[in-house]
Protein backbone atom coordinates (compact mmCIF):
# COMPACT_ATOMS: atom_id res chain seq x y z
CA UNK A 1 0.00 0.00 0.00
CA UNK A 2 1.30 3.43 -0.92
CA UNK A 3 2.44 5.58 1.99
CA UNK A 4 -0.05 8.29 1.00
CA UNK A 5 -2.96 5.80 1.09
CA UNK A 6 -1.77 4.49 4.43
CA UNK A 7 -1.77 8.04 5.81
CA UNK A 8 -5.41 8.55 4.75
CA UNK A 9 -6.57 5.19 6.07
CA UNK A 10 -5.11 5.83 9.53
CA UNK A 11 -7.84 8.46 9.96
CA UNK A 12 -10.42 5.65 9.63
CA UNK A 13 -8.79 3.30 12.13
CA UNK A 14 -11.38 3.89 14.86
CA UNK A 15 -14.47 4.39 12.71
CA UNK A 16 -17.61 2.53 13.75
CA UNK A 17 -20.17 1.35 11.17
CA UNK A 18 -22.99 3.06 13.04
CA UNK A 19 -25.50 5.80 12.38
CA UNK A 20 -24.17 8.79 14.31
CA UNK A 21 -27.56 10.45 14.83
CA UNK A 22 -28.86 7.41 16.71
CA UNK A 23 -25.85 6.87 18.95
CA UNK A 24 -27.16 6.86 22.54
CA UNK A 25 -29.82 9.52 21.99
CA UNK A 26 -32.29 9.66 24.89
CA UNK A 27 -34.97 11.43 22.83
CA UNK A 28 -35.93 8.38 20.77
CA UNK A 29 -39.62 7.62 21.46
CA UNK A 30 -40.85 4.29 22.74
CA UNK A 31 -41.56 1.67 20.06
CA UNK A 32 -45.05 1.04 18.73
CA UNK A 33 -46.85 -2.28 18.48
CA UNK A 34 -47.40 -4.08 15.21
CA UNK A 35 -50.83 -3.95 13.61
CA UNK A 36 -52.89 -6.96 14.70
CA UNK A 37 -56.48 -7.33 13.54
CA UNK A 38 -58.68 -5.13 11.38
CA UNK A 39 -59.14 -1.38 11.73
CA UNK A 40 -60.91 1.36 9.82
CA UNK A 41 -59.64 4.87 9.06
CA UNK A 42 -60.34 7.95 7.02
CA UNK A 43 -56.69 8.05 5.95
CA UNK A 44 -54.04 5.32 6.06
CA UNK A 45 -50.46 6.44 5.56
CA UNK A 46 -47.91 3.82 4.51
CA UNK A 47 -44.43 4.76 5.73
CA UNK A 48 -43.31 6.59 8.88
CA UNK A 49 -40.49 8.69 7.50
CA UNK A 50 -40.67 12.42 6.81
CA UNK A 51 -43.24 12.15 4.02
CA UNK A 52 -45.53 9.85 5.95
CA UNK A 53 -45.36 11.80 9.19
CA UNK A 54 -45.86 15.16 7.47
CA UNK A 55 -48.87 13.68 5.67
CA UNK A 56 -50.40 12.47 8.92
CA UNK A 57 -49.66 15.73 10.76
CA UNK A 58 -51.02 17.98 8.00
CA UNK A 59 -54.10 15.79 7.62
CA UNK A 60 -54.93 16.20 11.31
CA UNK A 61 -54.20 19.92 11.25
CA UNK A 62 -56.55 20.35 8.29
CA UNK A 63 -59.27 18.25 9.91
CA UNK A 64 -58.78 17.29 13.60
CA UNK A 65 -61.68 14.82 13.35
CA UNK A 66 -60.01 12.81 10.57
CA UNK A 67 -59.05 9.32 11.74
CA UNK A 68 -55.44 8.79 10.62
CA UNK A 69 -53.37 5.61 10.89
CA UNK A 70 -49.67 5.28 9.96
CA UNK A 71 -48.17 1.88 9.14
CA UNK A 72 -44.37 1.38 9.09
CA UNK A 73 -42.54 -1.78 8.06
CA UNK A 74 -39.57 -1.17 10.40
CA UNK A 75 -39.54 1.66 12.95
CA UNK A 76 -40.19 5.37 12.61
CA UNK A 77 -37.41 7.11 10.67
CA UNK A 78 -35.56 3.87 9.89
CA UNK A 79 -34.92 4.86 6.27
CA UNK A 80 -33.50 8.00 4.71
CA UNK A 81 -35.34 10.28 7.15
CA UNK A 82 -33.15 9.24 10.07
CA UNK A 83 -29.81 8.92 8.31
CA UNK A 84 -29.34 11.97 6.07
CA UNK A 85 -26.98 14.89 6.59
CA UNK A 86 -29.61 17.22 8.02
CA UNK A 87 -29.60 19.80 5.21
CA UNK A 88 -33.08 21.34 5.11
CA UNK A 89 -33.16 23.19 1.78
CA UNK A 90 -35.88 25.42 0.38
CA UNK A 91 -35.33 23.94 -3.08
CA UNK A 92 -38.15 21.71 -4.32
CA UNK A 93 -36.30 20.78 -7.53
CA UNK A 94 -32.95 19.46 -6.29
CA UNK A 95 -31.30 22.80 -6.83
CA UNK A 96 -32.12 25.86 -8.89
CA UNK A 97 -30.29 24.80 -12.06
CA UNK A 98 -32.13 21.50 -12.30
CA UNK A 99 -35.46 23.25 -11.72
CA UNK A 100 -34.98 26.03 -14.25
CA UNK A 101 -33.83 23.47 -16.82
CA UNK A 102 -37.11 21.54 -16.48
CA UNK A 103 -39.74 23.98 -15.22
CA UNK A 104 -38.47 27.39 -16.35
CA UNK A 105 -41.90 28.98 -16.70
CA UNK A 106 -42.97 27.87 -13.23
CA UNK A 107 -39.78 28.61 -11.34
CA UNK A 108 -40.99 31.93 -9.86
CA UNK A 109 -43.89 30.04 -8.27
CA UNK A 110 -41.81 27.00 -7.32
CA UNK A 111 -39.10 29.11 -5.70
CA UNK A 112 -41.67 31.08 -3.70
CA UNK A 113 -43.48 27.91 -2.60
CA UNK A 114 -40.14 26.41 -1.57
CA UNK A 115 -39.28 29.37 0.66
CA UNK A 116 -42.77 29.36 2.16
CA UNK A 117 -42.46 25.62 2.80
CA UNK A 118 -39.18 26.09 4.68
CA UNK A 119 -40.70 28.88 6.78
CA UNK A 120 -43.67 26.63 7.63
CA UNK A 121 -41.32 23.86 8.75
CA UNK A 122 -39.62 26.29 11.10
CA UNK A 123 -43.00 27.40 12.45
CA UNK A 124 -44.05 23.77 13.00
CA UNK A 125 -40.85 23.06 14.93
CA UNK A 126 -41.58 26.05 17.18
CA UNK A 127 -45.28 25.23 17.55
CA UNK A 128 -44.68 21.64 18.67
CA UNK A 129 -41.42 22.48 20.49
CA UNK A 130 -39.39 19.90 18.59
CA UNK A 131 -35.80 19.76 19.99
CA UNK A 132 -33.99 19.06 16.72
CA UNK A 133 -31.08 21.56 16.82
CA UNK A 134 -32.63 23.73 14.09
CA UNK A 135 -30.13 26.31 12.75
CA UNK A 136 -31.12 28.69 9.93
CA UNK A 137 -27.48 29.19 8.95
CA UNK A 138 -27.89 29.22 5.17
CA UNK A 139 -25.81 27.35 2.61
CA UNK A 140 -22.41 28.07 1.14
CA UNK A 141 -21.88 26.35 -2.21
CA UNK A 142 -18.23 26.48 -3.10
CA UNK A 143 -16.49 26.43 -6.46
CA UNK A 144 -13.38 24.28 -6.76
CA UNK A 145 -12.63 25.41 -10.32
CA UNK A 146 -12.91 28.63 -12.31
CA UNK A 147 -15.65 27.21 -14.53
CA UNK A 148 -17.80 26.37 -11.53
CA UNK A 149 -17.50 29.93 -10.27
CA UNK A 150 -18.43 31.23 -13.72
CA UNK A 151 -21.62 29.13 -13.70
CA UNK A 152 -22.45 30.33 -10.18
CA UNK A 153 -22.36 33.95 -11.26
CA UNK A 154 -25.01 33.31 -13.90
CA UNK A 155 -27.09 31.25 -11.46
CA UNK A 156 -27.03 34.07 -8.91
CA UNK A 157 -28.25 36.55 -11.50
CA UNK A 158 -31.20 34.33 -12.41
CA UNK A 159 -32.09 33.46 -8.83
CA UNK A 160 -32.02 37.03 -7.59
CA UNK A 161 -34.27 37.95 -10.48
CA UNK A 162 -36.84 35.52 -9.06
CA UNK A 163 -36.75 36.91 -5.54
CA UNK A 164 -33.83 35.05 -3.97
CA UNK A 165 -31.07 36.95 -2.19
CA UNK A 166 -27.85 35.09 -2.95
CA UNK A 167 -24.36 36.57 -3.03
CA UNK A 168 -21.39 35.53 -5.17
CA UNK A 169 -18.12 35.38 -3.22
CA UNK A 170 -14.64 35.61 -4.70
CA UNK A 171 -11.76 33.45 -3.55
CA UNK A 172 -10.71 35.75 -0.73
CA UNK A 173 -14.27 36.17 0.53
CA UNK A 174 -15.15 32.47 0.54
CA UNK A 175 -11.89 31.48 2.23
CA UNK A 176 -12.55 34.11 4.89
CA UNK A 177 -15.73 32.20 5.77
CA UNK A 178 -14.29 28.68 5.66
CA UNK A 179 -10.53 28.25 5.46
CA UNK A 180 -9.82 25.76 2.68
CA UNK A 181 -7.04 26.10 0.10
CA UNK A 182 -9.15 24.44 -2.64
CA UNK A 183 -11.92 27.07 -2.80
CA UNK A 184 -11.98 29.38 -5.84
CA UNK A 185 -15.17 31.19 -4.89
CA UNK A 186 -18.72 30.47 -3.90
CA UNK A 187 -22.36 31.44 -3.72
CA UNK A 188 -23.98 32.15 -0.36
CA UNK A 189 -27.70 31.76 0.30
CA UNK A 190 -28.21 33.25 3.75
CA UNK A 191 -31.65 31.81 4.56
CA UNK A 192 -32.51 29.16 1.96
CA UNK A 193 -31.12 26.28 4.03
CA UNK A 194 -31.38 25.25 7.65
CA UNK A 195 -29.41 22.56 9.46
CA UNK A 196 -31.20 20.05 11.64
CA UNK A 197 -30.66 16.82 13.53
CA UNK A 198 -32.60 14.56 11.15
CA UNK A 199 -33.38 11.80 13.65
CA UNK A 200 -34.65 14.25 16.27
CA UNK A 201 -36.78 15.94 13.62
CA UNK A 202 -38.45 12.68 12.64
CA UNK A 203 -39.00 11.78 16.29
CA UNK A 204 -40.44 15.22 16.95
CA UNK A 205 -42.86 14.85 14.05
CA UNK A 206 -43.81 11.45 15.46
CA UNK A 207 -44.61 12.94 18.86
CA UNK A 208 -46.59 15.77 17.24
CA UNK A 209 -48.67 13.24 15.31
CA UNK A 210 -49.36 11.24 18.46
CA UNK A 211 -50.40 14.39 20.30
CA UNK A 212 -53.10 14.97 17.67
CA UNK A 213 -54.42 11.43 17.90
CA UNK A 214 -52.63 9.71 15.01
CA UNK A 215 -52.17 5.96 15.53
CA UNK A 216 -48.77 4.53 14.50
CA UNK A 217 -48.02 0.84 13.98
CA UNK A 218 -44.43 -0.37 13.47
CA UNK A 219 -42.95 -3.64 12.19
CA UNK A 220 -45.98 -4.05 9.95
CA UNK A 221 -44.95 -4.34 6.31
CA UNK A 222 -47.77 -3.60 3.89
CA UNK A 223 -48.02 -6.57 1.53
CA UNK A 224 -50.67 -5.39 -0.90
CA UNK A 225 -53.54 -3.00 -1.51
CA UNK A 226 -57.06 -4.20 -2.22
CA UNK A 227 -59.59 -2.00 -4.03
CA UNK A 228 -62.89 -2.42 -2.17
CA UNK A 229 -65.84 -0.33 -3.40
CA UNK A 230 -65.37 3.18 -1.97
CA UNK A 231 -62.26 2.35 0.08
CA UNK A 232 -58.84 0.65 -0.01
CA UNK A 233 -57.90 -2.28 2.19
CA UNK A 234 -54.25 -2.14 3.28
CA UNK A 235 -53.02 -5.64 4.11
CA UNK A 236 -50.19 -6.42 6.58
CA UNK A 237 -49.05 -9.86 7.88
CA UNK A 238 -51.23 -9.74 11.01
CA UNK A 239 -54.03 -7.39 10.06
CA UNK A 240 -55.46 -4.79 7.71
CA UNK A 241 -56.70 -1.20 7.60
CA UNK A 242 -59.69 -0.27 5.49
CA UNK A 243 -59.43 3.41 4.64
CA UNK A 244 -61.27 5.88 2.45
CA UNK A 245 -57.90 7.26 1.28
CA UNK A 246 -54.35 5.87 1.29
CA UNK A 247 -51.14 7.95 1.13
CA UNK A 248 -48.06 6.01 0.04
CA UNK A 249 -44.78 7.32 1.44
CA UNK A 250 -42.51 4.35 0.72
CA UNK A 251 -39.36 6.17 -0.50
CA UNK A 252 -36.76 3.68 -1.80
CA UNK A 253 -38.79 0.56 -1.10
CA UNK A 254 -40.69 -1.15 -3.89
CA UNK A 255 -43.77 0.96 -4.70
CA UNK A 256 -47.08 -0.71 -3.89
CA UNK A 257 -48.49 0.78 -7.10
CA UNK A 258 -46.89 -1.32 -9.83
CA UNK A 259 -47.10 1.41 -12.46
CA UNK A 260 -44.87 3.68 -10.32
CA UNK A 261 -41.98 1.23 -10.14
CA UNK A 262 -40.46 2.18 -13.48
CA UNK A 263 -39.94 5.78 -12.41
CA UNK A 264 -37.69 5.37 -9.37
CA UNK A 265 -34.43 3.64 -8.43
CA UNK A 266 -32.48 3.52 -5.14
CA UNK A 267 -28.89 4.79 -5.05
CA UNK A 268 -26.64 4.60 -2.01
CA UNK A 269 -25.05 7.67 -0.45
CA UNK A 270 -22.42 7.58 2.33
CA UNK A 271 -21.27 9.79 5.20
CA UNK A 272 -18.48 10.10 7.74
CA UNK A 273 -18.39 12.02 11.02
CA UNK A 274 -15.25 13.21 12.78
CA UNK A 275 -14.54 13.38 16.46
CA UNK A 276 -15.45 16.81 17.93
CA UNK A 277 -12.97 19.48 16.88
CA UNK A 278 -10.80 21.10 19.51
CA UNK A 279 -10.84 24.87 19.85
CA UNK A 280 -7.53 25.02 17.95
CA UNK A 281 -8.81 22.82 15.14
CA UNK A 282 -12.00 24.84 14.85
CA UNK A 283 -10.04 28.08 14.71
CA UNK A 284 -7.91 26.65 11.89
CA UNK A 285 -10.94 26.30 9.60
CA UNK A 286 -12.96 29.34 10.67
CA UNK A 287 -16.56 28.46 9.79
CA UNK A 288 -17.92 30.95 12.31
CA UNK A 289 -21.24 31.15 10.42
CA UNK A 290 -21.76 27.38 10.67
CA UNK A 291 -23.16 27.32 7.14
CA UNK A 292 -24.04 24.10 5.42
CA UNK A 293 -21.45 23.63 2.67
CA UNK A 294 -21.52 21.80 -0.65
CA UNK A 295 -19.17 21.88 -3.60
CA UNK A 296 -20.33 22.24 -7.18
CA UNK A 297 -19.18 19.27 -9.20
CA UNK A 298 -21.49 16.70 -10.74
CA UNK A 299 -20.03 14.42 -8.08
CA UNK A 300 -20.21 16.68 -5.06
CA UNK A 301 -19.60 16.65 -1.34
CA UNK A 302 -21.83 18.15 1.34
CA UNK A 303 -20.62 18.90 4.85
CA UNK A 304 -21.59 20.66 8.03
CA UNK A 305 -20.77 21.18 11.68
CA UNK A 306 -22.85 19.29 14.21
CA UNK A 307 -23.99 20.70 17.54
CA UNK A 308 -20.89 19.08 19.11
CA UNK A 309 -18.60 20.66 16.45
CA UNK A 310 -17.90 17.39 14.73
CA UNK A 311 -17.82 17.58 10.92
CA UNK A 312 -20.28 15.47 8.96
CA UNK A 313 -18.84 14.81 5.51
CA UNK A 314 -20.79 12.98 2.80
CA UNK A 315 -21.67 12.61 -0.83
CA UNK A 316 -19.56 12.11 -3.97
CA UNK A 317 -20.22 8.42 -4.67
CA UNK A 318 -23.78 7.41 -5.58
CA UNK A 319 -23.94 3.65 -5.97
CA UNK A 320 -26.69 1.80 -7.80
CA UNK A 321 -26.87 -1.94 -7.26
CA UNK A 322 -28.12 -4.19 -10.03
CA UNK A 323 -31.92 -4.56 -10.06
CA UNK A 324 -32.19 -1.78 -7.50
CA UNK A 325 -31.74 -3.97 -4.48
CA UNK A 326 -32.07 -2.34 -1.05
CA UNK A 327 -30.18 -4.29 1.61
CA UNK A 328 -28.71 -3.44 5.00
CA UNK A 329 -25.29 -4.82 4.01
CA UNK A 330 -25.05 -2.11 1.33
CA UNK A 331 -25.00 0.58 4.04
CA UNK A 332 -21.28 0.15 4.73
CA UNK A 333 -18.73 0.64 1.93
CA UNK A 334 -15.06 0.69 2.91
CA UNK A 335 -13.82 1.86 -0.49
CA UNK A 336 -16.16 4.86 -0.51
CA UNK A 337 -15.17 5.79 3.04
CA UNK A 338 -11.52 5.83 2.00
CA UNK A 339 -12.39 8.11 -0.92
CA UNK A 340 -14.36 10.44 1.34
CA UNK A 341 -11.51 10.59 3.88
CA UNK A 342 -9.03 11.42 1.13
CA UNK A 343 -11.18 14.27 -0.20
CA UNK A 344 -11.78 15.56 3.33
CA UNK A 345 -8.03 15.87 3.95
CA UNK A 346 -7.57 17.60 0.60
CA UNK A 347 -10.21 20.14 1.57
CA UNK A 348 -8.97 20.60 5.15
CA UNK A 349 -5.26 19.63 5.24
CA UNK A 350 -4.93 21.53 8.52
CA UNK A 351 -7.06 18.81 10.17
CA UNK A 352 -4.64 15.99 9.36
CA UNK A 353 -4.62 13.51 12.23
CA UNK A 354 -8.27 13.91 13.17
CA UNK A 355 -10.21 10.67 13.66
CA UNK A 356 -13.44 9.66 12.00
CA UNK A 357 -15.75 8.03 14.54
CA UNK A 358 -18.84 6.97 12.57
CA UNK A 359 -19.53 5.83 9.01
CA UNK A 360 -22.79 4.79 7.39
CA UNK A 361 -24.80 4.84 4.21
CA UNK A 362 -28.36 4.82 3.07
CA UNK A 363 -30.50 4.53 -0.03
CA UNK A 364 -31.92 7.58 -1.80
CA UNK A 365 -34.94 7.37 -4.11
CA UNK A 366 -34.13 9.07 -7.38
CA UNK A 367 -35.82 9.52 -10.73
CA UNK A 368 -34.75 10.77 -14.15
CA UNK A 369 -35.61 14.38 -13.39
CA UNK A 370 -33.93 14.47 -9.95
CA UNK A 371 -36.96 15.92 -8.18
CA UNK A 372 -40.17 14.58 -6.60
CA UNK A 373 -43.11 13.40 -8.67
CA UNK A 374 -46.69 12.48 -7.76
CA UNK A 375 -49.31 10.05 -8.93
CA UNK A 376 -52.71 8.62 -8.05
CA UNK A 377 -54.23 5.17 -8.41
CA UNK A 378 -57.32 3.12 -7.57
CA UNK A 379 -59.68 5.78 -8.83
CA UNK A 380 -57.98 8.55 -6.88
CA UNK A 381 -58.30 6.76 -3.54
CA UNK A 382 -54.52 6.22 -3.33
CA UNK A 383 -51.70 8.68 -4.01
CA UNK A 384 -47.92 8.62 -3.83
CA UNK A 385 -44.91 10.92 -4.00
CA UNK A 386 -41.41 9.65 -4.80
CA UNK A 387 -38.05 10.67 -6.26
CA UNK A 388 -36.69 13.26 -3.81
CA UNK A 389 -33.08 12.42 -4.81
CA UNK A 390 -31.49 13.20 -1.47
CA UNK A 391 -32.92 16.69 -1.01
CA UNK A 392 -36.06 15.67 0.80
CA UNK A 393 -35.66 16.88 4.38
CA UNK A 394 -37.74 19.97 3.58
CA UNK A 395 -39.39 19.03 0.28
CA UNK A 396 -41.10 16.04 1.90
CA UNK A 397 -43.43 18.46 3.64
CA UNK A 398 -44.35 19.99 0.29
CA UNK A 399 -44.67 16.49 -1.16
CA UNK A 400 -47.01 15.48 1.64
CA UNK A 401 -49.16 18.61 1.36
CA UNK A 402 -49.51 18.11 -2.38
CA UNK A 403 -50.34 14.42 -1.96
CA UNK A 404 -53.10 15.37 0.47
CA UNK A 405 -54.44 17.92 -2.04
CA UNK A 406 -54.64 15.13 -4.63
CA UNK A 407 -56.38 12.74 -2.24
CA UNK A 408 -58.85 15.43 -1.18
CA UNK A 409 -59.42 16.36 -4.85
CA UNK A 410 -58.45 19.98 -4.24
CA UNK A 411 -57.54 22.44 -6.97
CA UNK A 412 -54.57 24.30 -5.47
CA UNK A 413 -51.56 26.25 -6.62
CA UNK A 414 -49.53 23.13 -5.90
CA UNK A 415 -51.66 20.69 -7.90
CA UNK A 416 -51.68 23.01 -10.92
CA UNK A 417 -47.89 22.85 -11.27
CA UNK A 418 -46.48 20.98 -14.26
CA UNK A 419 -44.01 19.29 -11.92
CA UNK A 420 -47.00 17.81 -10.06
CA UNK A 421 -49.13 16.93 -13.09
CA UNK A 422 -46.34 15.39 -15.18
CA UNK A 423 -44.30 12.30 -14.31
CA UNK A 424 -40.62 11.87 -15.20
CA UNK A 425 -39.30 9.77 -18.07
CA UNK A 426 -39.25 6.14 -16.85
CA UNK A 427 -36.08 4.10 -16.50
CA UNK A 428 -35.59 1.22 -18.95
CA UNK A 429 -35.88 -2.37 -17.68
CA UNK A 430 -32.83 -4.31 -16.51
CA UNK A 431 -30.14 -4.89 -17.60
CA UNK A 432 -30.48 -1.68 -19.64
CA UNK A 433 -31.25 0.33 -16.47
CA UNK A 434 -27.94 -0.67 -14.89
CA UNK A 435 -26.03 0.08 -18.11
CA UNK A 436 -27.82 3.41 -18.51
CA UNK A 437 -26.97 4.53 -14.97
CA UNK A 438 -23.33 3.45 -15.24
CA UNK A 439 -22.85 5.22 -18.57
CA UNK A 440 -24.40 8.38 -17.12
CA UNK A 441 -22.16 8.29 -14.04
CA UNK A 442 -19.07 7.92 -16.22
CA UNK A 443 -20.20 10.80 -18.42
CA UNK A 444 -20.73 13.04 -15.38
CA UNK A 445 -17.22 12.27 -14.11
CA UNK A 446 -15.79 13.18 -17.51
CA UNK A 447 -17.82 16.38 -17.55
CA UNK A 448 -16.22 17.46 -14.26
CA UNK A 449 -12.78 16.90 -15.79
CA UNK A 450 -13.66 18.89 -18.91
CA UNK A 451 -14.74 22.15 -17.25
CA UNK A 452 -18.38 21.11 -17.13
CA UNK A 453 -18.70 20.47 -20.86
CA UNK A 454 -21.34 17.82 -21.48
CA UNK A 455 -20.35 15.03 -23.86
CA UNK A 456 -22.45 13.22 -26.44
CA UNK A 457 -24.12 10.90 -23.91
CA UNK A 458 -25.24 13.72 -21.60
CA UNK A 459 -26.43 15.81 -24.54
CA UNK A 460 -28.48 12.83 -25.70
CA UNK A 461 -29.98 12.54 -22.22
CA UNK A 462 -30.82 16.26 -22.32
CA UNK A 463 -32.55 15.76 -25.66
CA UNK A 464 -34.85 13.11 -24.17
CA UNK A 465 -35.59 15.11 -21.04
CA UNK A 466 -33.34 13.09 -18.74
CA UNK A 467 -30.60 15.67 -18.34
CA UNK A 468 -28.76 14.51 -15.23
CA UNK A 469 -27.12 17.47 -13.53
CA UNK A 470 -25.50 16.06 -10.41
Which SSEs are present, and which pair or pack?
Elements: H1 3-9, E1 37-46, H2 50-62, E2 68-71, E3 87-89, H3 96-102, H4 107-127, E4 139-143, H5 146-161, E5 166-169, H6 171-177, E6 185-189, E7 193-195, H7 198-211, E8 215-217, E9 224-228, E10 231-236, E11 239-248, E12 265-274, H8 279-285, E13 292-295, E14 301-305, E15 311-315, H9 334-347, E16 356-366, E17 373-377, E18 382-386, H10 392-407, H11 418-421, H12 432-449, H13 456-463
Parallel strand pairs: 1-2, 1-11, 2-8, 4-13, 11-18
Antiparallel strand pairs: 3-7, 4-6, 5-6, 9-10, 10-11, 12-15, 12-16, 13-14, 14-15, 17-18
What does this structure look like?
This protein is an alpha/beta fold. It folds into three domains: 3-24 and 137-186 and 265-362, 2-Layer Sandwich (D-Amino Acid Oxidase, Chain A, domain 2), CATH 3.30.9; 31-136 and 191-264 and 367-427, FAD/NAD(P)-binding domain, CATH 3.50.50.60; 432-463. 32% of the residues lie in helices and 22% in strands. It has 13 helices and 18 strands. It has helices at residues 3-9, 50-62, 96-102, 107-127, 146-161, 171-177, 198-211, 279-285, 334-347, 392-407, 418-421, 432-449, 456-463, and strands at 37-46, 68-71, 87-89, 139-143, 166-169, 185-189, 193-195, 215-217, 224-228, 231-236, 239-248, 265-274, 292-295, 301-305, 311-315, 356-366, 373-377, 382-386. The strands form three sheets. Strands 1, 2, 8, 9, 10, 11, 17 and 18 form an eight-stranded mixed β-sheet that branches. A hairpin with a 2-residue loop joins strand 9 (224-228) and strand 10 (231-236). Helix 2 packs across helix 10 (392-407). The longest helix is centred in the N-terminal third of the chain and has 21 residues, at 107-127. It is globular. The two termini are 32 Å apart. The model has no long low-confidence stretch (mean pLDDT 93).
Amino acid sequence: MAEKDSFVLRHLADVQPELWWLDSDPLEPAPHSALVGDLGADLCVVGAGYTGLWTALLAKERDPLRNVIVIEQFETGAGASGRNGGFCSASLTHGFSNGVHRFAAEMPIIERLGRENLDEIEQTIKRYQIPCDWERTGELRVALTDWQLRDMTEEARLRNGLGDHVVVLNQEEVQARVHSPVYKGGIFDHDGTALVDPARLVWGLERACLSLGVQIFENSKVEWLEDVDDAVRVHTPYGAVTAARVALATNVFTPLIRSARKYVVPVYDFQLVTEPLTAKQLASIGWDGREGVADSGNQFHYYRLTKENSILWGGYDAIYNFRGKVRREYEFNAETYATLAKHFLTTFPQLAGIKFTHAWGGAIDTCTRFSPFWGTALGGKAAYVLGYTGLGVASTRFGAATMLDLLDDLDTERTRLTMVRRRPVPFPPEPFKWIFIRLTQQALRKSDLREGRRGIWLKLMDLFGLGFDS
